[in-house]
Each structure stands twice: as structure tokens, then as C-alpha cells.
Amino acid sequence: xxxxxxxxxxVSPWAYLAGDRxxxxxxxxxxxxxxKPVDLGKVFSATGGxxxxxxSQARQDYRLQELARAQAKTGLPLTIHPAHFPTNxxxxxxAIIAAQKAGGDTAALVQNVLRACWAEDRNIAEDEVxxxxxxxxxxxxxxxxxxxxxxxxxxxAYTEEAIQEGVFGSPFYVVDSGQKFWGQDRLDDLExxxxxxx
Length: 198
Prior knowledge:
CATH class: Alpha Beta
Strand content: 5-15%
Strand order of the largest sheet: 2-1-3-4
Largest sheet: 4 strands, mixed
Number of domains: 1
CATH superfamily: Glutaredoxin
Distance between the termini: 16 Å
Number of helices: 10
């Protein structure tokens, strides 16, 4: 049975546009998934990436076109310029880490958080929004508070692990076979790998 470490940041539109495809294909192939939110700024610093505002105008313009195309292909609602982006991804990341440890539908929580940012114009750094996302996924909203210390420690550990694994963007999928896939547009390749075709 394959295992996938899923590295991402909760403010990534590309992670949002992946929808539930990772979970669907993992179920189809009997694979398991561990959700590992990371501090993408630190990942970028270690791997040569640049924060959005520091990229050339050509790259920023291209990103907007790609987002519009990806939205059209997926059919998911998307606000290209959300009201609360960028925002601090750490609080929502801590909640995801605590929820995963508690057990339950972590995938639903991750998608709730991403959707809150990219389709609902909500600030995922705010406690109320995080609590709503937890509740909607069937978790105790109190995890937003109780998981802070452990969440912060694990968040840092996941970030360092990501750097060691060669992760340089979000979303990034690392299979225990050693194969790595960057971006929601590589999910078909990931599935082909799980099926033994790649």
C-alpha cells in the first residue's frame, strides 16, 4: 500500500484547485495520505523560490492566467484576488495538525480552509473562521485552541522535513516510493504512478 506525504500551505490557490482529487485517487489505489502544512516562506528561502510580490511582473501576470485556466478546467469557484490574501497560514495549519492527530476527516477540513480563503473571501487567520471550518468537517472547534503548542512545533518540523525532502512549492506530493509530484496539474501523473504505469 502506497503512502503519500502531502506538503502544502493553506493559502495556496493551487492546493485549493486540486479539490478532492488526491483523496479520490488515494482511495481508488488503497493509498494513505498524511497532511503536512508547511511555512512556504521558509521553504522558498531554502530552495530558491520567491514570494509572489517579489516575482517579476511577467511571472505574476502568467500566474493570473494560469489560475483562470485552472478554475475553468476544474469548475471550482475561485476569487482570483481574495480579500484576505496573503494572510497568516500558521493558525489554520496548527488546527489541521491538531485535527489530524485527533482523527477524523482531515481532508474535509483542509478543503474547508482552502475554500474559505479562495472562494468565500474569509480570513483563515481568524479564530472564528478556523472554528467554523473545524465544525463543518466534524471536529471539535476547541482544537483551534488546544492544539496550538503541539501544532506550532509540528508545523516547524514539517517545514524542515519538506526542505530535506526536496519540496519547493505547494501543493507537493511525496510518495514513499521516492517519487515526487509538484502541483495540482501533476495529479494525473501521481495516479499513473500509483497504478504502476509511471
